[in-house]
Amino acid sequence: MKIFTLCLFYINLACNSYTLAKTPDAFIDQSDSVIIKIESKQKDRFYYPDDFGNVTYLEGESRLVVDKPYFELIDGRYKISYFLKRGEMIRILPQGGFAKFDTGDSIRNQELLFSTEYFKKFEIQFYTGSFYERTFVEQKYIDNPQLRDNLLAKEYEKEIDFLKQYQDKHRLSEAFFSFHTDVIKYKILERKLFLGHLIFPENYVRKIIENAIVSLKRDDLLFLRNYRNASNLLLYDIKKLDHARSYSDIINQTFANDTKDFVSASAVVHSDQELIKLSASEILSITANLLSLSRQSAYKEHVEGIHAFKSLVLTGEQILGSNGKRLNFNQISKGKLTYIDFWASWCKPCMAEMPYSKRLQEKYAEKGINFVYVSIDNNAAAWQRAGKKLGIPQADSYLMPSSSMSAVAKKFDISSIPRYMIMNQDGKIIQENALRPSEFKIRAVFDKMLKN
């Protein structure tokens, strides 16, 4: 789906999601992990983002291997970021309002509580609104950019003063103060770089760019979402100002090391969106540089999957199997009555239906009903990752690339998901809008069809 505004780009980063519930064998400390126990039945509240905006929701007990000193966990109810330390065990107790954290260390609990108190002081009035509201991009600031700079500078000073007071009150370490100073700094920088579609004076934009280039050389802070967002915005702002330059040239001359690898990978991942729109030749150039020079294997793997996916050409009603082979849509029945689930890794209602689908499959697969899952993801890596997490058998997992252009999607008007269909043994759709797995009457439908 095309994203037509800068604000929608941020919404898009927040809506690619799936739910993960992991239970470790023993609730024990591991130095390479963060161990989280959420003591609440409320679902879809706490999640963590990956580097490209995909988010994973957590439930129950989870042990997550992390390769950075801090792990960002977000309370989706208020959009508050909490920074957990690698090797930490933590209980989260949502009690109707704000979350309560218990690490077994009162000092550490106070450190985590800072994010809640910061939110109450500076962000509570904005959390139901948009990021745009806090960036000062109205016409009066275009006419007087210094006023915009002064407002952002005052906000930075107020937030640092609040941080210092909190540190002194609770006798927290200088390391705590230094870390959250960086968090605040890059929150402000992200807002400063967000110039919208309006035209600020060129000298003002160039000054912002020059300062940002110096600030965005902190590879050690790539785990900060605001640092990553600021890096992407810097690329966009430079391109907007010097539109004749290629993205590849801007990346090579502006960024370095791991930050450069991230910006390169992010540009490819989001290349079909308006924020960073790449031509086919630019995608090839950036991908080639990343794959040959990057030290980040995770970025390489992600981009390789994206590149292969974007270059895939399917004809007619073809879809893609998990083995990479093309096949016609009507072949998925395999000569059996087939229940088809159209879903995506980012679709929370789809995720909610999966446990019901699994129970249906356990009951009816042995009776001769075939269950298949057709993803409409635009990211092959996200499809494969989510399918693995959900336990979808590879033989039953398919991908419908470029779903908005797919002949299958057009034929059956697949414009929203989850969507369910029933196909007969000959590969003909006999129900275009079948009941969901969670609807008990679907069992009666299956029973009747099996008798005929």
UniProtKB/TrEMBL annotation:
The keyword Disulfide bond applies. It comes from the Bacteria. SUPFAM superfamilies: Thioredoxin-like. Residues 300-451 form the Thioredoxin domain. It is found in: Cell envelope. The keyword Metal-binding does not apply. GO terms for cellular component: cell envelope. GO terms for biological process: cytochrome complex assembly. Coiled coil: none annotated. Keywords: Cytochrome c-type biogenesis, Disulfide bond, Redox-active center. One of its GO terms (molecular function) is oxidoreductase activity. It holds the Pfam family Redoxin. This is TlpA family protein disulfide reductase. It comes from Dyadobacter psychrotolerans.
